[in-house]
């Protein structure tokens, strides 16, 4: 049986109150001509650049039509277009219609740390139990959420929507658009403090995801955060079910977490009954988020035991704690180092979690030049921390995990405060930019090392990660 089209011209025109210039059928929705596929509806958003400038290119690449506010230059009058007064508002309307026409069980995820990893956990677990649609990458903002909803096939059984924020008032409208049956808050931590007076304001904003919960829906709340009472009060006021998780969880309780080099083993209790699960990567934060994700699956009606099995096969994505082995010699396979790529983003909480992972990593001795494997951190500035930024950076030196880190290389003016705070034996190299660090770091790494790269996205730690990857040689299977 052939799947129905995602959008017909008539359906899209009705949803957006727009005008279709021709009859067309779209099987996808795209905002980027670099990744557009044949048959997609191209949405000409205005962001850093005006999407209308790329409509002609999109149509040349096989776009089924373009969502525009006017006929762009270089585009024929009879081109397949959907003309609307405002492109973003039209995308929002498509998203609302996409959500309304499906019977999918929907979970929305927010939190200061771990949104994307938890979303991917949920997608993996639910995907093994039904047709699942999820946000791609970190599409969690004012255009990412409606785009995800507009892309949702009508026969979707489970949907996972990530919702983020930078400023007050962003989460509630997106949650109301997604209309989740389950809303999960991974944690509340110091992030985006420049836009809030304190962490209490962040908690209030995160709790506003509950405003979008469907009647009878459930809020999966981290009971370990200092602002847990704010989250719980919001669920109570909204008359929504509160499911608590964490070491102090009411319903899903962590009992023990064992970190191994590449595995996390978790013992928990669910309503007093034991639950044991594994995650194929190390991290206390993965244990916490995994437990909350399992709670979300259960509240959606999925099988908890099968979800736990699926979670055991999940691994982090690139830039989110993914681990890889770098072969330093094309012949000697034992000459390797391990890379932990957590370069996508950073705040004090996620930085502490990543350093815990590094501290638990197993190094290899008696190989390479140094003969002693080392745990090495390459850390970039953490952005948007407000007036306490320098203090929060320097405070990383006091973390217990730092005692097991052999060398710390620092990038950026804020990380200079950490560099100056560290004892002499831990100081590696300080550089102003990742470009500078990428040029000098390779000579400071050796076989047997485990290397963590982490910093805010704007610090471009991906350049350092790429430089480390380029130290490697391809190895053919025997």
Describe this protein's structure.
The chain is an alpha/beta fold. The chain folds into three domains: 7-87, MurE/MurF, N-terminal domain (Udp-n-acetylmuramoylalanyl-d-glutamate--2,6- Diaminopimelate Ligase, Chain: A, domain 1); 102-311, Mur-like, catalytic domain (UDP-N-acetylmuramoyl-L-alanine:D-glutamate ligase, 3-Layer(aba) Sandwich), CATH 3.40.1190.10; 322-469, Alpha-Beta Complex (Protein-Tyrosine Phosphatase, Chain A). The chain contains 15 helices and 22 strands. A nine-stranded mixed beta sheet has the order 9-10-8-11-12-13-14-15-16, with helices on both faces. It has a six-stranded mixed beta sheet with strand order 17-18-22-19-20-21, with helices on both faces. Helix 3 packs across helix 5, helix 7 (199-207) runs parallel beside helix 8 (228-237) and helix 14 (434-440) runs parallel beside helix 15. The longest helix has 17 residues, at 284-300. It is globular, with a radius of gyration of 24 Å. 52% of the residues are buried.
Tell me the layout of helices and strands.
Blueprint: E1 7-8, H1 9-16, E2 19-20, E3 25-26, E4 28-30, E5 40-43, H2 55-60, E6 65-68, E7 81-83, H3 87-100, E8 105-110, H4 115-127, E9 132-134, H5 144-150, E10 158-162, H6 171-178, E11 182-185, H7 199-207, E12 218-222, H8 228-237, E13 241-246, E14 252-259, E15 264-270, E16 273-279, H9 284-300, H10 304-311, E17 322-327, E18 336-342, H11 348-360, E19 375-380, H12 389-394, E20 407-411, H13 415-421, E21 427-431, H14 434-440, E22 450-454, H15 462-469
Parallel strand pairs: 4-5, 5-6, 6-7, 8-10, 8-11, 9-10, 11-12, 12-13, 13-14, 18-22, 19-20, 19-22, 20-21
Antiparallel strand pairs: 1-3, 2-7, 14-15, 15-16, 17-18
Helix pairs in contact: 3-5, 4-9, 4-10, 7-8, 9-10, 14-15
């Amino acid at each position: 049986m052939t799947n129905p089209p995602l959008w017909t011209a008539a359906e899209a025109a009705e949803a957006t109150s727009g005008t279709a210039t021709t009859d067309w059928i779209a099987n996808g929705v795209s905002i980027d001509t670099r990744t557009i596929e044949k048959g997609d509806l191209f949405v000409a958003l205005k962001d850093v650049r005006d999407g209308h400038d790329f409509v002609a290119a999109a149509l040349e690449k096989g776009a089924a039509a373009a969502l525009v506010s006017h006929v762009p230059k270089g585009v024929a009058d009879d081109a397949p277009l959907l003309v609307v007064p405002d492109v973003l508002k039209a995308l929002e309307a498509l998203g609302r219609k996409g959500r309304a026409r499906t019977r999918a069980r929907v979970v929305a995820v927010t939190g200061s740390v771990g949104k994307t990893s938890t979303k991917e956990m949920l997608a993996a677990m639910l995907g093994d139990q039904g047709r699942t649609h999820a946000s791609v990458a970190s599409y969690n903002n004012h255009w990412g959420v409606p785009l995800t909803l507009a892309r949702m096939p009508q026969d979707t059984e489970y949907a996972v929507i990530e919702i983020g924020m930078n400023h007050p008032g962003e989460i509630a409208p997106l949650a109301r658009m997604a209309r989740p049956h389950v809303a999960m808050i991974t944690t509340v931590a110091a992030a985006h403090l420049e836009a809030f007076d304190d962490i209490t304001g962040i908690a209030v904003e995160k709790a506003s995801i509950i405003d979008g919960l469907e009647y009878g829906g459930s809020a999966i709340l981290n009971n370990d955060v200092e602002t847990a009472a704010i989250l719980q009060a919001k669920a109570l006021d909204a008359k929504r079910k509160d499911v608590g998780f964490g070491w102090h969880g009411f319903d899903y309780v962590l009992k023990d977490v064992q970190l191994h080099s590449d595995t996390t083993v978790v013992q928990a209790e669910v309503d007093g009954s034991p639950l044991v699960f594994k995650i194929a990567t190390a991290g206390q934060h993965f244990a916490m988020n995994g437990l909350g994700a399992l709670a979300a699956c259960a509240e959606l009606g999925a099988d908890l035991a099968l979800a736990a099995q699926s979670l055991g096969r999940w691994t982090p994505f690139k830039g989110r704690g993914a681990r890889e082995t770098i072969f330093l010699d094309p012949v000697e396979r034992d000459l390797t180092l391990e890379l932990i790529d957590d370069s996508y983003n950073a705040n004090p909480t996620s930085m502490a979690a990543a350093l815990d992972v590094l501290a638990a990593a197993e190094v290899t001795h008696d190989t390479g030049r140094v003969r002693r494997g080392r745990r090495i951190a390459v850390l970039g500035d953490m952005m948007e921390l407000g007036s306490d930024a320098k203090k929060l950076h320097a405070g990383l030196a006091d973390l217990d995990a730092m005692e097991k880190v052999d060398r710390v290389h620092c990038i950026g003016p804020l990380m200079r405060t950490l560099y100056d705070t560290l004892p002499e034996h831990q100081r590696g190299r300080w550089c102003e930019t990742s470009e500078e660090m990428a040029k000098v770091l390779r000579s400071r790494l050796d076989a047997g090392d485990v290397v963590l790269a982490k910093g805010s996205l704007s610090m471009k730690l991906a350049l350092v990660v790429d430089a480390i990857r380029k130290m490697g040689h391809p190895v053919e299977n025997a």
